[in-house]
Amino acid sequence: MAGSFNPGQRPCPDSKPGQAAGVNMRGMTEMTAAARSFTARLGLELPLIQAPMAGVQGVAMAAAVSGAGALGSLPGAAMAPQALRDAVGLMRRDGGLPVNLNFFCHAQAAADPAREAAWRAALRPYFDELGVSPSAIRNGPGRLPFNEDAVAVVEALRPEVVSFHFGLPALPLLERVRRAGAQVWSSATTVAEARWLAAHGVDAIIAQGVEAGGHRGVFLAEGPAFDLSGQLRTMALLPSILEAVRVPVIAAGGIVDADGVAAALRMGASAAQVGTAFLLCPEAMTSAVHRAALQSEAARNTALTNLFTGRPARGIVNRLMRELGPLSDVAPAFPTAVNALAPLRAAAEQAGSGDFSPLWAGTDVSGCRAIPAARLVRQLAATL
Ligand SMILES: Cc1cc2nc3c(=O)[nH]c(=O)nc-3n(C[C@H](O)[C@H](O)[C@H](O)COP(=O)(O)O)c2cc1C
Prior knowledge:
Layout: H1 33-42, E1 48-50, H2 59-67, E2 72-75, H3 81-93, E3 99-104, H4 113-130, H5 148-157, E4 161-165, H6 171-179, E5 183-188, H7 191-199, E6 204-208, E7 214-215, H8 234-244, E8 249-252, H9 258-266, E9 271-274, H10 288-294, E10 302-305, E11 313-316, H11 319-324, H12 337-350, H13 373-380
Parallel strand pairs: 1-9, 2-3, 3-4, 4-5, 5-6, 6-8, 8-9
Antiparallel strand pairs: 7-11, 10-11
Helix pairs in contact: 3-5, 4-12, 5-6
The structure holds flavin mononucleotide.
Flavin mononucleotide binds next to strand 7 and strand 9.
């Protein structure tokens, strides 16, 4: 199981009081004190979170996971306010299920015509090859930022948790989220980011190891180029963050099975957040080319790339990444890179090819199962 977060059965190296975990008579890992207090605060049965995954999941996945006793998430970066209202409405009707609403808190990039022109020039040979006219390019919003509309949704829906990627929103918006009664979480990819989040009063920090699929939550090393040199694997990042802050920490990245979940808890995590392993579930909206790639040999080879959106994210290496180089100055700022690629992606996917698609995946796809999400939750929680 190359690349997964699974340090094996060993005593908890984290010596914080009250967090010790043992193996009980049935060979099951007892829940740690940290995990117990985490689940109690949220009314969850399991210290397990289905990662929000923009573009590949919606209410079907979130409802199935929350219905199974873990926490289901909805990706606000890819769901308009009304879609979020409808989804949470369904989950509330469906037995009052808890929910995590997740948002990207990026600032919409200012237009940069020169960079956009360079990007389109780099893609031009592919448009010619596929017989697609560049006039098909539309300027869409790409990914939605957390803004007035989104905070109004939070105030109306009062979710149990609001989690952010790429830092935190401006203080007035953040205070409105807190007043709506939601726990506030955000991702840290370095110890410095975790310290920053703790100083800004988050209720939990998601330690996102470099194995994780999808966008890196990196926010302190932004700029024209992202500095990714300090990105650690989950197994190293988690204890470093636990050492540095006194806030509950959720482990994410390369956790694909029950051993990985148990190992994260033993190390002191309050919960585990799992993304990639859910991508083949029938409730996921993962495209056909993405599903095929996840089940192919190609999935062994993932890399961080900024080509698809303008921010670094981990995906299965495909033709575009190979030919332009996965991290390239030519891709415009987040999230505008999406626009010029969209017609290429659509044409290629129609022909059954993922050459121009973001095939987001973590380093370890061995946990991906085409089974209902509730069953996968039970498997991930098998030792708890
Ligand atoms: C397809 C995909 C989409 C993702 N989209 C989001 C997102 O919208 N918001 C977010 O906070 N994290 C997103 N992530 C990252 C996850 O929150 C999490 O860090 C990651 O899935 C954990 O690593 P794993 O994929 O190895 O389980 C995404 C991950 C994947 C695989």
